[in-house]
Design goal:
- The protein has 17 helices and 27 strands.
- It has 482 residues and is of the alpha/beta class.
- A hairpin with a 2-residue loop joins strand 26 and strand 27.
- Helix 2 packs parallel to helix 3.
- The protein starts with 11 loop residues before the first strand and ends with a helix.
């Protein structure tokens, strides 16, 4: 493969010049997912300018410090969608300096394309190569195809720090607009139905900026004893489920949420006894744990939208990109997270949460129901549409100062109707087919930390005195969050 990055007579310029042409109150669509594949030079140039900016920024998922730190600290972002994962952006969202609205990942591209969310002015996206009417994304696809299609103007950052061989991973497929939208013609997770390029109207290309800056890598902590206990319980539950259910006659298809716990839980699959069944990943992000499974021969294939890797994981993949690309496919987020495909594939979804209440409702995003952490991301896409939906989390916060199994969550991201099982370091509560009062007892007995169980049982007894289908004593329930 040629290493040529810029093909044709294109409007190559520097970041400051490209940024100067972005209107001060622009709605700016940016590439990036899982803090990978986001533009770096133009957002940083905007942050360092002396202009009075009031931008609306729409990403595909989490992005790096150049956007959610530098631009936020420059007081340049007035409104932000759909996800943020940096302390300055979180603080600005919580104190009202930045209007932040969370969105489901699967429908975000449609929200932008159909005009129901924003009216975009410019798309700023990262690529490993660009031509007069095409580009090849870098380490993520996310919603870049939809954003490029929708924006009036396009700025492309060509990043020389990312190997051009990343093109081997990309499988770009664009769903048609309703009512002519047909089912996505994907029959197996490792099938390819598109090509590596995102095409666009050549007249939209306003600037090309060359960069040489890696994505900020993930820092996965070493698994704790709690992580390993959760992983062991998850492995035992899945092993039994695979033997019991006809859903897994030939293969096991899994998805894990991003982060250190999700990465650690992937390791549990290396020792799982699934017989001669293939293990396949169909989710959002490729993490280091999946590279380990691929290298060991344990994982047959992986489909996602982003390469969310540590520095060591990036080095590993870049050094042998073509080999990994034989088994790894990166798709647009409206394909990777598409409810119909999650259902078609029959995914086992494993995601985490801040807390789960006695009736199975999960809060993934808001501490004490008020302070947003990051966003819902794609967790609801998978939790609601998976064949088996699992919430895995430690039973307490920190050193045990606070239980994560609570009487009532003050914010609901995943309802009781979407959660099939809860796993902590103490055990597994299989909630399928249970009534609310049965769910409550299972979660207390099998998932709560032992020294919180009596308090939870006492709460449940008091709530039962009030009656109801899901009995609650509201004053007592909310006191757990004081």
């Amino acid at each position: 493969m040629t290493d040529q990055r810029i093909e044709g007579e294109l409007p190559v310029t520097d970041a400051a010049s490209a940024a100067a042409d972005v209107p001060a109150d622009a709605t700016m669509l940016v590439s990036g997912f899982g803090s990978v594949g986001y533009p770096k030079a133009v957002p940083l140039a905007l942050a360092e300018s002396d202009r009075d900016l009031s931008l609306t920024v729409v990403s595909g998922g989490s992005v790096g410090e150049e956007i959610d730190v530098a631009l936020v600290e420059a007081d340049a972002i007035a409104r932000r969608y759909p996800y943020q994962a940096r302390s300055p952006a979180r603080a600005a969202a919580n104190d009202g300096r930045m209007a932040f609205a969370d969105r489901h990942i699967s429908t975000l591209g449609d929200d932008v394309q159909f005009g129901g969310l924003v009216d975009p002015d410019v798309a700023v996206v990262e690529a490993v190569a660009v031509g007069e009417d095409w580009l090849i994304p870098s380490g993520s696809v996310g919603h870049t195809p939809a954003y490029v299609e929708r924006a009036d103007e396009l700025i492309v950052e060509v990043n020389h720090a990312q190997p051009r061989s990343l093109a081997e991973f990309h499988d770009i497929y664009r769903p048609a607009l309703p009512p002519d939208r047909e089912p996505v013609p994907l029959s197996t997770p490792d099938e390819r139905i598109g090509g590596p390029r995102i095409e666009f109207d050549a007249d939209a290309l306003a600037a090309v900026v060359e960069t040489d800056r890696r994505d900020e890598p993930y820092e996965f902590r070493e698994p704790t004893e709690t992580d390993r206990a959760i992983a062991g319980n998850l492995r035992s539950f899945l092993t039994d489920e695979v033997e019991r259910s006809p859903l897994f006659a030939d293969s096991v298809r899994v998805q894990f949420g991003v982060g250190s716990l999700g990465n650690a839980l992937m390791g549990a699959l290396a020792d799982a006894d699934f017989g001669d069944r293939d293990l396949i990943y169909f989710g959002e992000v490729i993490q280091d744990g999946l590279l380990d499974l691929l290298d060991s021969g344990r994982l047959e294939a992986a489909s996602a939208t982003s390469l969310a890797l540590s520095a060591e994981g990036q080095d590993r993949l870049f050094a042998d990109a073509e080999r990994y690309a034989e088994d790894v496919v990166l798709r647009p987020a409206d394909v990777s997270n598409r409810p119909a495909l999650i259902d078609r594939v029959g995914v086992v979804a494993v995601n985490s949460a801040l807390e789960v209440d006695l009736y199975g409702h999960a809060n993934s995003t808001h501490v004490d129901g008020s302070r947003v952490l990051n966003g819902i991301g794609g967790s609801a896409d998978f939790t609601r549409n998976a064949a088996l939906s699992i919430i895995a989390l430690p039973s307490t916060v920190g050193d045990g100062d606070r239980s994560r199994i609570v009487p009532m969550v003050p914010h609901v991201d995943h309802t009781e109707h979407d959660v099939d099982a809860v796993v902590t370091e103490h055990g597994v509560a299989d909630l399928r087919g249970t009534a609310p009062r049965e769910r409550a007892r299972l979660l207390v007995d099998r998932c709560a930390r032992p020294d919180y169980r009596e308090r939870l049982r006492a709460y449940l007894d008091r709530a039962l005195d009030s009656g109801g289908h899901e009995p609650h004593d509201l004053d007592a329930a909310l006191s757990w969050h004081e």
